């Protein structure tokens, strides 16, 4: 259902963009008053303004409805995800200290302190300022 609403939403958005790009500005009506063939237009002598205006308003209403529907669906899914995550975290038990493996002294690497001191003598000193 969400995918269908999303596809309709996307198609309506593209249709709105197309309708807005096809509309003429207010300055385009000046040519009709000087005898430009307004009676030979596709949408009749009344012009295309009324048709495009109504179609744009209709598509904007559909776009608003699909936006609202997608927001409601997203909120419901967020609530479901939140409820599931809380119920999972409550069921997880952390291991106690007695259950963890003890650290053996033989596992810890040893460091030769005298070898470290000898290697520091090879480092050149910085000149004094």
TrEMBL record:
Entry's transmembrane regions: 51-73
UniProt topology in membrane: Multi-pass membrane protein
Cellular component annotations (GO), alphabetically ordered? plasma membrane
- Read off the InterPro entries from this record: SecG
Q: Which domain of life is it from?
A: Bacteria
Question: Which ranges are annotated Acidic residues under compositional bias?
Answer: 113-129
**GO molecular function: any one?**
protein-transporting ATPase activity
- Keywords linked to the UniProt accession: Cell membrane, Membrane, Protein transport, Translocation, Transmembrane, Transmembrane helix, Transport
Where in the cell? Cell membrane
- Pfam families per the UniProt record, alphabetical: SecG
Region Disordered, as annotated, extends over 97-129
Entry keyword NAD:
no
Q: Which GO terms describe its biological process?
A: intracellular protein transmembrane transport; protein secretion; protein transport by the Sec complex
Name the family the entry cites.
Answer: Belongs to the SecG family.
Query: What functional role does this protein have?
Result: Involved in protein export. Participates in an early event of protein translocation.
Q: What is this protein called?
A: Protein-export membrane protein SecG
Q: Which gene encodes it?
A: secG
């Amino acid at each position: 259902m969400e995918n269908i609403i999303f596809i309709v939403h996307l198609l309506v958005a593209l249709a709105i963009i197309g309708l807005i790009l096809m509309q003429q500005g207010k300055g385009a009506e000046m040519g009709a008053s000087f005898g430009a063939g307004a009676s030979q237009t596709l949408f009749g002598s009344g012009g295309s303004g009324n048709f495009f205006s109504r179609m744009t308003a209709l598509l904007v209403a559909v776009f608003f409805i699909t936006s609202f529907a997608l927001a409601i669906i997203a909120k419901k899914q967020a609530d479901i995800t939140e409820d599931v995550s809380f119920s999972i975290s409550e069921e997880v038990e952390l291991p106690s200290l007695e259950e963890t493996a003890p650290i053996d002294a033989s596992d810890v690497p040893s460091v030769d302190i005298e070898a470290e001191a000898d290697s520091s003598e090879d480092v050149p000193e910085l000149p004094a300022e």
